[in-house]
């Protein structure tokens, strides 16, 4: 007899990796809140992984629990944590959230305030997984509504607009033959050669291989015009078409 009450399927989610440099709870929470305030929609209810691999000192269990509680209090959702295999805390078996294996990442560059410290205690990154088999393009003919997320394992071609509050992601390039008002993330598996093309640049956020730019910066370069986004030396460039 076949059990048809549920199905198990794979899913693609934009996951944030919080790479801790120094376990200073107050500093981490303050710096992370600054980043969240710059792009609240991107971080709202975002799944997050805590990475302790670069923390060399002993990590008290109560401080780790406080960090998890603080992240949840900022509106993030902690789904797991990582650490160096040779420096695994003795209390690792007692943590309720899962201990995850390492994964390849690309840094997310968020503009820092002028007063930001030169050596931050925390770095925010997107998690990217390797895929060995290239995929063909996905073509979408209808508008992407607010709250929707569309992902393509190859290129993503949208023959309509992307509404504010929507998110489109692709391992390869993203083409929007309409207004891009939501978030567009190309090269999400680390392809730094990926690009974003749109008929009208009105995006909340654009990202190539984890490096992103927000509305405020876009409005100063190209706004409500045809444009392409590419990555040059780990910095985004926005070029009119």
Offer a concise description of the structure:
By secondary structure, this protein is an alpha/beta fold. It is 15% helix and 32% strand.
Poorly predicted tracts of residues: 109-119, 126-134
How many distinct helices?
A: 4
Let me know the largest β-sheet: 6 strands, mixed
Identify the strand order in the major beta sheet: 6-8-10-12-15-16
Shape: globular
Provide the structure class.
alpha/beta
Pattern of helices and strands: EHHEHEEEEEEEEEEEEHEE
The average pLDDT is: 82
Distance between the termini: 58 Å
Number of distinct beta strands: 16
User: For the CA atoms, what is the radius of gyration?
Assistant: 19 Å
- The helix content, as a percent range, equals 10-25%
Strand composition percent: 25-35%
Walk me through the structure:
- By secondary structure, the protein is an alpha/beta fold.
- It is 15% helix and 32% strand.
- It is built from 4 helices and 16 strands.
- It has helices at 25-38, 40-43, 61-73, 215-219; strands at 16-20, 47-51, 77-82, 105-107, 122-127, 138-140, 149-152, 156-158, 167-170, 174-180, 183-186, 196-201, 205-208, 211-214, 227-232, 235-240.
- The strands form 3 sheets. It has a 6-stranded mixed β-sheet with strand order 6-8-10-12-15-16, with no helix packed on it. Strands 3-2-1-5-4 form a 5-stranded mixed β-sheet, covered by helices on one side.
- A hairpin with a 2-residue loop joins strand 15 and strand 16.
- The radius of gyration is 19 Å and the shape is globular.
- The N and C termini lie far apart (58 Å).
- Residues 109-119 and 126-134 have low confidence and may be disordered.
């Amino acid at each position: 007899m076949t059990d048809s009450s549920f199905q198990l399927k794979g899913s693609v989610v934009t996951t944030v990796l919080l790479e801790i440099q120094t376990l200073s709870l107050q500093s981490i929470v303050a710096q992370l809140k600054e980043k969240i305030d710059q792009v609240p929609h991107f971080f709202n209810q975002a799944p997050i992984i805590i990475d302790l691999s670069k923390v060399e000192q002993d990590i008290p269990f109560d401080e780790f629990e406080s960090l998890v509680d603080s992240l949840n209090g900022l509106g993030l959702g902690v789904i797991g944590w990582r650490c160096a295999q040779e420096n695994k805390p003795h209390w690792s078996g007692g943590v309720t959230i899962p201990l995850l294996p390492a994964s390849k990442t690309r840094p997310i560059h968020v503009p820092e305030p002028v007063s930001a410290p030169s050596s931050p205690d925390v770095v925010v990154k997107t998690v990217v997984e390797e895929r060995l088999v290239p995929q063909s393009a996905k073509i979408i003919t209808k508008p992407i509504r607010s709250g929707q997320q569309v992902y393509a394992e190859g290129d993503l071609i949208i023959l309509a607009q992307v509404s504010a509050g929507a998110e489109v992601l692709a391992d390869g390039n993203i083409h929007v033959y309409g207004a891009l008002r939501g978030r567009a993330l190309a090269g999400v598996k680390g392809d730094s050669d990926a690009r974003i093309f749109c008929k009208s640049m009105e995006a909340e956020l654009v990202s190539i291989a984890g490096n992103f730019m927000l509305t405020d910066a876009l409005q100063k370069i190209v706004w409500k015009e045809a444009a392409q986004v590419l990555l040059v030396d780990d910095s985004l460039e926005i070029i009119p078409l």
